[in-house]
Amino acid sequence: MNIKLIASGSRPWEKWVGYWGLSYLIDDTILFDTFGNYPMLARKLRKAHVDIASIQSVVISHDHWDHIGGLWTFLEKRPGLDVYLPPTAKSAVKSRVISCGGCVIDTAGIKTLKEGVLLSGEIMGEFNGKPIAEHFIVIKGSKGLTILVGCSHPSILAIARKAKEAFNMPVYGVIGGLHLFRSKIEEVYQCANALKNEGIKMVAPTHCTGWRAERVFKRVFGNGFVSLSENQSLSL
Fold it and tell me: How far apart are CA 97 and CA 75, in angstroms?
């Protein structure tokens, strides 16, 4: 199983130049989130030598603009694709997916995307005092589960525990945005140590994790910390 980071941006200056969001590609066929805008997504896909005709489905972790912004033009270029959304995603988002040529797939429960790659089902979180639905990808491997997250609004610890309980397997790794860029350092240490105590061996934080938090995770996880750059891949 191959996971490639297509695009990741979350620093303040990146927001002002339109470089904000997240996107991954799994085995060249499943696009996980679509960055904040299509021109940048398309540029990064070209740089990674990705033929968009090979992409068979799109998973949107949650309906915030920086994860869904590139979807609309992408669907116009690849109509007919299944787009997996949390069931309580905004109705306007679902309607726009359809109007752009996509097929909405609600993920009320666990769904299999391909052998060894599953969707978690919806888990609720909070953002700016309002509820937000999110789901994540689970990859089954010989070492355990690896979870691929968008922003971890429900908290990465809650997500890891949900995966462990739902699949009755230990969580080996965590990849993606951990939404700790505004957290105090002591809170980040608590989070990192809690994940380690859960038995997690590998972390590859990106996007909204924040560079300070990434340093903490590197200290806590040592060789288990993976610094993943754009156009780099992890094999599981």
Answer: 8
Tens-place pLDDT, residues 12-55: 666 666 678 999 999 999 999 999 999 999 999 999 999 999 99
Q: How many CB atoms lie within 10 A of CB 53?
A: 8
Structure tokens at 142: 């010989």
Neighbour order of strands in the sheet with 117-119: 111-114, 117-119, 137-141, 144-149, 171-177, 202-206
- The Cα–Cα gap between 32 and 43 comes to 16
Token pair recorded at residue 51: 């033929």
Tell me the CATH number of domain 2-235, given options 3.60.15.10, 3.90.1150.10, 1.10.540.10, 3.40.50.1950.
3.60.15.10
Question: Which amino acid is present at 19?
Answer: Y
Helix (H, G, I), strand (E, B) or coil at 193: helix
Helix (H, G, I), strand (E, B) or coil at 63: coil
3-state secondary structure 146-161: EEEECCCCCCHHHHHH
Cα-flanking dihedrals φ and ψ of residue 47, to 5°?
-60, -35
Q: Torsion over CA of 107, 112, 116 and 121, rounded to 10 degrees?
A: 20
Contact 126, 114 (CB under 8 A): no
- Bridge-based pairing of strands 2-9 and 21-26 is antiparallel
Sequence-separated (6 or more) residues with CB below 8 Å from residue 151: 22, 61, 62, 64, 67, 134, 176, 177, 179, 207, 208
- What is the tens place of the pLDDT at every residue in 128-180? 888 999 999 999 988 999 999 999 999 999 999 999 999 999 999 999 999 99
DSSP classification of residue 234: E
